[in-house]
Amino acid sequence: MADPASSDPQRTGDLDRDNTLLQAAAFAEHLQRSGVAFLPRANPDRVAEFKQRFAPSIPIAPATEKKAAVEQVAEEKILPKPPESRPESRPESRPESRPEFQSTSIRGEAAKRYPCEARPVSQRTAELDTLASTVAACTKCPELVHCRTQTVFGEGDPQARFVFFGEGPGADEDRTGRPFVGKAGQLLDKMIVACKLTRDEVYILNTVKCRPPGNRNPEPEEIENCRPFFESQLEIIRPQYIVCLGAVGTQALLRSKLPIGKLRGKFHRYFDSKVVATYHPAYLLRNPAAKKAAWADLQMMLKDAGISLR
Ligand code: SF4
C-alpha cells in the first residue's frame, strides 16, 4: 500500500524539515560534547532567508507554536545550560572512587554529568597516550599478566560520537594489540558500516585490557581492577553514545546484574552518554538469529542520533 505521506507534498515537506532539524540539533549537541564551547543562537530571519534561497520547496514554519518548539530545541539541545558548578580544570590526580552511576532508564532521574570539562582533541590524544602507557605497565591481575602477550588499550577517534565497548581481548587481539580484529571484529566492522560509520570515526575499547586465559570471562575482581582505565577512557572521549557489546561489558558499565536480554531495547545513561546494550558479535556469530535484535538496537540509536539509513 502506498505511503500516504509520499503523496502529500505538505506532509513530506514537514517530515523533511523535522528530520533536518533533528539532525542539526543532534550534530550541534555532538559538537558541544566534542569541546566546541559556543554555538551562535539561530536568527529566525536568517533561517528564513536561507530556506528561501536553498530549499524554497520546504515551507517555513509560521512564527507560532512551531517556532516556539524550534527555540525550545535550541535552548535544550543546541545551547544546553552549563551546570551550576563545574571544576575549572582537570584535577591533577584522578580520585580513587568515582561518582556512583545510577543504572536508570534514560527517562528516569536526570543523569549526572562527566566530572570534567570536554578537552580539545590534542589534549584528549595526549591523555589517552599517557593512559595507554600506564595500562601497558599494569600488573594488577597476576593471572592475566602471566598469560598476556600485550595489553589491548583501544583505538579510534578520541572525540568519537559513538563508542563500542566490548568484553576483553581474544587471541587475535592479544597477538596484534588491537581490539576486535578477529572474526567477531569483522562482524563488528560490518555493524559499524551498516550504521553508515567507519571504524576510524568511532572508538573501540574493552572492559579488561588483558586477555583472560582460554577466553574465559573476566573475573569480577579483574573488572574492578581495570575499571579506572575504561572509565578514564570514556571520560576523555565523552561519546554521545556507548554501544555495550555483550553482558560482561554492559553489566560492568551499568553496574547491573541483569541479563543482556533485559538490558537491551532501551537507553541507559552513563554520565552524559546514552548507553545502548546489545549482543556481542561473538555471540551473534554463534547465534545468527539474534542479529535481527542487535540490528534493532542499533537502529534505535541511529534514529535517536538523527542518522537516516535511507
Ligand atoms: S586487565 Fe586491566 S587491571 Fe588487569 S592487569 Fe590488565 S590492564 Fe591491569
From TrEMBL:
SUPFAM superfamilies: Uracil-DNA glycosylase-like
CDD domains membership: UDG-F4_TTUDGA_SPO1dp_like
GO molecular function: 4 iron, 4 sulfur cluster binding; metal ion binding; uracil DNA N-glycosylase activity
Residue numbers spanned by region Disordered: 74-119
NADP keyword on record: no
Enzyme class: hydrolase
Domain of life per record: Bacteria
Span of domain Uracil-DNA glycosylase-like: 153-299
Catalytic activity: Hydrolyzes single-stranded DNA or mismatched double-stranded DNA and polynucleotides, releasing free uracil
Biased amino acid composition, Basic and acidic residues: 74-99
Record InterPro entries: UDG_Type-4/5, Ura-DNA_glyco_family4, Uracil-DNA_glycosylase-like, Uracil-DNA_glycosylase-like_sf
Sorted UniProt keywords: 4Fe-4S, DNA damage, DNA repair, Hydrolase, Iron, Iron-sulfur, Metal-binding
Family under the similarity heading: Belongs to the uracil-DNA glycosylase (UDG) superfamily. Type 4 (UDGa) family.
Record-linked NCBIfam families: UDG_fam4
PANTHER family associated with the record: TYPE-4 URACIL-DNA GLYCOSYLASE, TYPE-5 URACIL-DNA GLYCOSYLASE
Official protein name in the record: Type-4 uracil-DNA glycosylase
Species the sequence originates in: Novipirellula aureliae
